[in-house]
Design brief:
- The chain contains 4 helices and 4 strands; from the N terminus they run βαβαααββ.
- α3 packs antiparallel against α4.
- The longest helix is centred in the middle third of the chain and has 15 residues.
- It is elongated, with a radius of gyration of 16 Å.
- The two termini are 15 Å apart.
Length: 119
């Protein structure tokens, strides 16, 4: 059986992008994470050690978002690797990273990159 932990629309100000001004000015990003693991032991035990500590996942996301990168794919890859290394019981991660105000013409909610990986 698979259980999911989902962190939704974590809003973070960061400095990612290919254009020099993106690394100087920065912008807001939204991060969504979906993590699959067997959480039934925690359902029975009520013990934090038996689950994925989503506060720690949130900390990892914030730490990795502080490191400037040109590509959103690179940021997502780092986030996924850190989460998977920290919580070995994870069998699937999906991360969507949205640049809320990309420096492109036209009105839009944002541009997103979504990546997923099975372990």
């Amino acid at each position: 059986m698979t259980s999911k932990i989902i962190l939704e629309d974590i809003k973070i100000y960061a400095y990612h992008g290919v254009l020099p001004e993106e690394n100087i000015l920065g912008t807001y990003y939204l991060v969504n994470a979906e993590i699959h693991a067997d959480l039934w032991k925690a359902a029975e035990s009520d013990d934090l050690n038996d689950t994925i500590n989503y506060a720690m996942v949130n900390d990892i996301i914030h730490e990795e978002m502080k490191i400037p990168s040109q590509l959103l794919e690179h940021v997502i890859g780092r986030i996924m690797s850190r989460i998977a290394e920290t919580f070995r019981q994870i069998n699937f991660i999906k991360i969507r990273l949205t640049k809320v105000q990309p420096p492109m013409p036209g009105e839009m909610t944002g541009v997103s990159v979504e990546m997923e990986k099975q372990f």
